[in-house]
Write a structure and sequence with these properties.
This protein is of the alpha/beta class. It has 16 helices and 15 strands. β3, α6 and β4 form a beta-alpha-beta unit. The radius of gyration is 25 Å and the shape is elongated.
Amino acid sequence: MASAAEKTLPLVETFDEKQFYLDEFRGHSLVFSIPVEELSGDEAYGRLAACVRELLINNSRVLLLVRTPDRSSGEQVLRRLQRRLGPLIFGDDTIPLFVDRRSRNEAFLSLPADTLEITDQLLRMIWSVLRRGPLFVGILAGAAGAQAASFAQEIAVRLRVHKLILLDANGGFVGADGKPISFMDETALGALLHVGQAEWAGLGSRRWIFDVARAALLGGVSSVSLCALAGVARELFTYEGSGTLFTRTDYCRIERVGIDDFEEVERLIERGQREGVLKLRSPEEVAALLVNAYGATIGAHHLAGVCALLTEPYAAERAGEIVGLYAITRFKGEGVGGRLVARALADARAARLAYVFACTTEARAQAFFERQEFRRVGFNDVPEAKWAGYDTRRKSRVAVYRFEW
């Protein structure tokens, strides 16, 4: 039987892609920097606990560093965390992860944050907690926002954790045009840190976040996320995210996908089909796409888009078809679609194909292919094999585009 606390625990919403991110985090450590203002009530505590519990069950280590205004309020928050967060996190499925049930109380500590100095003694203390169980909760009393985040960043670097999560009520960055900035690499961060650049972009008031994120990346942390607590599950466990993701290298790689990537690519295709961006395909058609697919990867792990170049059905005409082109909304502004098509065209040219074509019913996709210098043609300007068994209703709406050298 579940306890009353467990019954009231809000579940992290189930997403198709959540398992992909859990796989990424498995066996790794994550540091959260949390201003106490984000823990404003039972719902906030429950949301944080649900996310932490997902990670603990996943065999991930979690370090929560909570900033409070002063030592007195820090002690109060520490008691609240032990009383309100602990029972939500520790249940029948998580207790076996700890050496003994008392460890859940020993996981909650008030850090010596008067100077916020990272010492070997402090790091040893953190490890002495984590070796007994995969959760550490520390209170940073009297620290300012930027100071607490920098402290979390230094802990993350010294312990070489996998990911740093900066929780902030304002969430991720928004550009001067009002659009969310979902992704930045280290090069973009460096540019914004030049004198006046962050201010020119309308981001000067939060410039310190750029410093913290860049220092973490240069120190070896794989990625940094900035988001509000309300969106932390979406940020960690979904493609679309909810804030701003920072990564260091490999801004966008386009590679042929391998069999170990097939399940993840297939889930991405299914997402595109549910959104109506991609047409519905049979399992056999999806398999044909997978063995000819390219994937766009942002940073080290984030699959941002896919497409495939089919040639076998059109071998007699030495033609290729671009199919299944789909990019995650979060990364559409990064030119992922154009990079995927450019790679497919480069391979088609190297294979001495006469031309490449694409078919779409989407107005935005039509505009996209025109920007890639495809020209619109008639049905008879592509192989007859394309139309064998093709849905006549869809054909009446489809636009055909062709690219040749």
